[in-house]
Design brief:
By secondary structure, the protein is α+β, with helices and mostly antiparallel strands. It has eight helices and 19 strands. It has three domains: 111 residues, no CATH class; 126 residues, Jelly Rolls; 73 residues, Phage tail protein beta-alpha-beta fold, CATH 3.55.50.30. Helices cover 35% and strands 31% of the residues. Strands 1-4-5-7-8-11-12 form a seven-stranded mixed beta sheet. Strands 2-3-6-9-10-13-14 form a seven-stranded antiparallel beta sheet, with no helix packed on it. The radius of gyration is 26 Å and the shape is globular.
Length: 327
């Protein structure tokens, strides 16, 4: 097989993996197979090139600098009569070539500075494979921007929640920024959720360091099974039920003696037709169970059966949940 043919096969495989991993639903088996495929350095480079190209084409056309260059290239120029037409044609070709070089340089600089952005809509979850072999799962209504350099891997969680499984690379720390909070890991698995100006961090495997850059002396170190909520006045590391708290990443919501008001707020994150508790006395009633993400009807039916509640639909689509009326 020639080098060109081998490269073409890798490009096609990379395109197939890119399309598969950016579907709404991605299986764990797919992620494992992708990781095995990407262990080959040539495959990894082919995928990284494709991911960078896709990110560039999505927004490069909206760059003001690129638009100005494109308009200048398309604008007709007035030409003076020349005594040496062939030379004039060569000059014009040279100008076009120079413009092409400028466009290439601008595109390259833009790629180096512009992070890739991934997002989900309400009720959607998405698995994203990153160029370094790491992958993340975006929860409902979430958004991240990713920028990798030779020294650092940075992800900004600007909205929502994400589960990170980080590929080990001692020379390039993996840093997640969420509001005023910064989480640093080398190779580990952890969950980050935006909370106010900060975040809630849950460590599943490995080890992470958490800090608030604005307060240089404020740092925490987490071990598996611990969480930290940095948006509280006095954040502290505390134990957490990892299985229940991160079950969303497997398409489940797990409640264990959770107050109904808290469970309803969590379920509402996945729906544009929220549940509204009409009886304040229900707010503190504990509920336990496991529900499919987005299955708002199943959740309402379970509460209605367990606690004898009535559910009605308002004109604007909200689900009104209250105590059953006595007949």
């Amino acid at each position: 097989m020639t080098i060109e043919a081998d490269a073409e096969i890798r490009r096609k495989e990379a395109a197939d993996w890119f399309a598969r991993l950016n579907q709404r639903r991605v299986t764990t088996a797919d992620v494992r197979r992708f990781s095995a495929w990407r262990c080959d350095p040539e495959n990894a480079r082919a995928f990284a090139r494709l991911e960078a190209l896709w990110s560039a084409t999505a927004t490069l056309g909206r760059s003001p600098d690129i638009q100005i260059l494109a308009e200048a290239a398309a604008r007709p120029r007035r030409s003076r009569p020349s005594r040496n037409p062939p030379k004039g044609r060569l000059v014009q070709i040279g100008a076009v070539g120079a413009l092409a070089l400028v466009l290439c340089a601008a595109g390259s600089a833009w790629l180096a500075l512009r992070p890739a952005t991934y997002a989900t809509e309400i009720g959607e979850q998405r698995t994203v494979a990153l160029a370094d072999g790491s992958h993340l799962i975006l929860d409902t209504g979430s958004r991240v921007s990713v920028r990798f350099t030779g020294e650092r891997r940075t992800v900004a969680l600007t909205q929502g929640q994400a589960m990170f499984e980080v590929a080990r690379d001692a020379g390039r720390p993996f840093v997640v920024r969420a509001g005023d909070t910064e989480v640093t890991a080398l190779g580990t698995r952890f969950d980050v959720r935006r909370s106010g100006a900060g975040a809630r961090v849950i460590l599943v495997e490995g080890r992470v360091a958490v800090r608030k850059p604005a307060a240089s002396d404020t740092r925490w170190s987490l071990s598996p099974g611990q969480q930290l909520l940095t948006s509280t006045p006095r954040p502290r590391v505390a134990p957490v039920n990892v299985v229940a708290s991160t079950s969303w990443s497997a398409g489940r919501l797990t409640f264990d003696d959770t107050p109904i008001a808290v469970a309803v707020a969590e379920v509402n994150r996945y729906s544009r037709s929220p549940i509204v508790l009409q009886d304040a006395r229900l707010a503190s009633v504990p509920v336990s169970g496991v529900f499919n993400v987005g299955d708002i009807d199943g959740f309402v039916a379970a509460l209605s059966d367990l606690y004898g509640l009535d559910a009605t639909i308002s004109d604007d689509g909200r689900i009104l949940l209250g105590s059953a009326s006595k007949k």
